[in-house]
Amino acid sequence: MAELSERIQTGDWKAEKHVPVIECPDAVRANDFFEVSVSLGKAVAHPNTTEHHIRWMALFFQPDGEKAPYQVAHVEFGAHGESTKGANQGPVYTNHATFDVGTKSPTDTSADFDTAHLTNIFESGPYLHDGRAATLEETWTRHNSEDKHGLSSDWTKQQLNDLIEYLKSL
Ligand code: HEM
User: Which of 58, 85, 112 is the endpoint of a domain?
Assistant: First the structure.
């Protein structure tokens, strides 16, 4: 029987949409907290469709000199907006396409991101692909300076509040 290690494959990640990207500081001081982000479909967009649903992602850490790795995160994506009408049907509030809404950061290789579905959006923050918007409001007040994600520079405070109230009802 083949060893598990023989099953591990390598490839050109720039052409592969299933390669996880792990971003973290190059160096940290002992006992300091730091952020690690794991994403998928960064270089090559991953289709945001029900048959391409990613069910889980896990993150492991192997300290220098230790025999076994530590599992430090395991995230389940238990719901993916499936519909009784069939795959990729139903009102999940996404068009399953990618768009540039002005949220590319210097470390992103593409400006196009999956259009997010908005069901239960009130409890799924932080928002945007890298979680830079701590609140729904910040999606527009801090991260839409080019007006590519709606002409929010024209909105009154009341209009923004109304939109947020609506989003929270989805
Ligand atoms: C008033 C209309 C809109 C509202 C209320 C809205 C709401 C939102 C919200 C709340 C997010 C963050 C979702 C999350 O992080 O989970 C988001 C992300 C996104 N929306 Fe919209 N959106 C609107 C219009 C549009 C339009 C017209 C497009 C495409 C032309 C679009 C494309 C996107 C994309 C690509 C993202 C992901 C951006 C990223 O992750 O950096 N949105 N939208």
Answer: 85
Domain count, the chain: 2
What tens digit of pLDDT does each residue of 122-147 get? 888 899 999 999 999 999 999 999 99
Is the C-beta atom of 48 inside 6 A of ligand 1?
A: no
Residue 126 lies in domain: 93-170
Tell me which amino acid residue 162 is: D
Backbone angles phi, psi at 142, to 5 degrees: -120, -20
Answer yes or no: are the C-beta atoms of 62 and 70 closer than 8 Å.
yes
Last residue within a domain, chosen from 85, 111, 137: 85
> What's the pLDDT score for residue 157?
95
- Rg (Cα) of the chain, in Å, rounded? 19
Helix (H) or strand (E) holding 137: helix 136-141
Q: Are residues 56 and 19 in the same domain?
A: yes
Alpha carbon of 67 to ligand 1 centroid (Å): 44
pLDDT in tens, 88-98: 666 666 666 78
Q: How many whole angstroms separate alpha carbon 167 and alpha carbon 130?
A: 20
Q: 129 alpha carbon to ligand 1 midpoint, in Å? A: 10
What is the structure's pLDDT at 79?
A: 67
